[in-house]
Amino acid sequence: MDLLRFITAGSVDDGKSTLIGRLLFDSKSIMIDHLEALEKQSKNKEDGEIDLALLTDGLRAEREQGITIDVAYKYFATPKRKFIIADAPGHIQYTRNMVTGASNSDLAIILVDARHGVVEQTRRHSIITSLLNIPHVVVAINKMDLVDFSQDVYNNIVIDYAEVAKKLGLKDVRYIPISALNGDNIVAKTAALTWYEGPSLLDILETVELADDIDLEKARFPVQYVIRPQTEELHDYRGYAGKINSGIYKKGDAVTILPAGFSSTIKAIEHNGKEVDEAFAPQSVVIHLEDDIDISRGDLIVKNDNRPKVSNEVEALLCWMDHKALVPGNKYLLQINSKQVRSVVKEVSYKLDVHSLEQIASPETVALNDIVKVTIKTASPVAYDAYQELRTNGGAILIDETSHVTVGACMIQ
After folding, report:
1. What is the pLDDT of residue 225?
2. With CB atoms counted within 10 Å of each terminal CB, which end of the chain scores lower, N or C?
3. How would you class 173 by CB atoms within 10 Å of its CB: exposed for 0-12, middle for 13-18, buried for 19 or more?
4. Does domain 220-303 have CATH number 2.40.30.10?
5. Is 3.40.50.300 the CATH number for 2-213?
6. Where does CATH 3.40.50.300 sit in the chain?
7. pLDDT tens, 269-286?
8. How far, rounded to the nearest angstrom, does the alpha carbon of residue 62 sit from its chain's CA centroid?
C-alpha cells in the first residue's frame, strides 16, 4: 500500500482543521477514547456536535485563539492508501511552518472560502506551493452551505483561481466544492451538490497517481551508512546503505561517486536482505561496488549517463526560519540529504514578495519568514540538482553551528 503526504493551506478560518477533522471522522479513523475526549472538549457540546477542529489544533494557545500555529501532523489509512496530513498555519507570520510542512508533500489542498473567493493569502499559499514544486493541487472551495451550494459561485472561483494557477505554472490542479462542517463531498458525495459530477475529496486523495512523480531518469543514491562488519564470515563485506532518491540501479551499471569523482561498477544490490538484479526509487538498498573506494556518509553514487552539478558555490531560494536576522558572511552547516558541509552565506541578491512574486533587490535585513535569493559558498564541493528539476536532490537546510538549530530551508537553483 503506498503513502500520500499532503498539506492543507488557506486563509485564517477557511476551515483547514475542520476539513481534516471531518476526513478523519467520516473515514472512521478516530479511536473511541479520543472521540469521547473530543466530545467533552467541544465548544458545541450543548447541541451535541463535535468540534472537529480540535483534532488538529492540539496546542492550548491554538485552542484559546481558535487558530492554527504549528504544523500538526495526522495519520490515517483507508483500504486503498495510507496518508500523512500536515495542517499548516494560514497566518503570514508562520510562513516558515508552511514551508516545513510542504517540503515533502505530494499534494496540496488549498482551501478557498466560497463567500470570499480567491484572496491574498490564497495567492501566497499558491506561490509557496509553486516554489516548493508540489506536483498535485486540489482547490477545495469550502463553506458551500453558506452560499446555498451555488454552482455560479463555484464556477466564478474556478475561473479566478485558474488565472493564478496559469501564472504560477501549477501542474495538476483539480477543483472541488465542499462543506467541511457538514461533510458534503468530503468522503462521500451528497444530494446538496447534485450539479457537481466529479469525485469526492477522499476519492481524489485515494486515486491521485504518485508513480509518475518519481524521476526514474536521474539516478541519485546518497550513502547513509557504510556497512563493514569485519567478522570472520563477512571478512570482505563492504556495502553502502541508503535510500534511492530517484532513478534505477542495475547490477553491472557504471557509476561515479561524487563529489570525489571516482568511477566503479555495481557488483551487487541487496534489497530486504536478498540480492536483486535491479532496484529503483524509493527503495532502501545496500549497494556493493567492484572497487574498494574511500566512500563515506553523504557521498552520492550516480550513473555516468546523467550526473548532477558539482560545485562549492550554490544559488538558492532560502526561507529564513530563525528569530535572529540572517547576516551575509555568517557561517552555517549546509545539509543536502545525508551530506553535511561547512558553509557561509556569501550574498543576498533579493527578497521575494510572497504576495506578488516581486523581487526586492538588496534587502537591508533578512528576518524570520522572509524568502530570499542567496549565494552559499561551501568548504568542500557538493553534488546537487536544481530543486525545480529534482526535489529530492535540490532541497537543503542551513544549520546553526553552535545551537544545531535549523535556521533556513533552501531550494537550490
Report:
1. 95
2. N
3. buried
4. yes
5. yes
6. 2-213
7. 999 999 999 999 999 999
8. 23
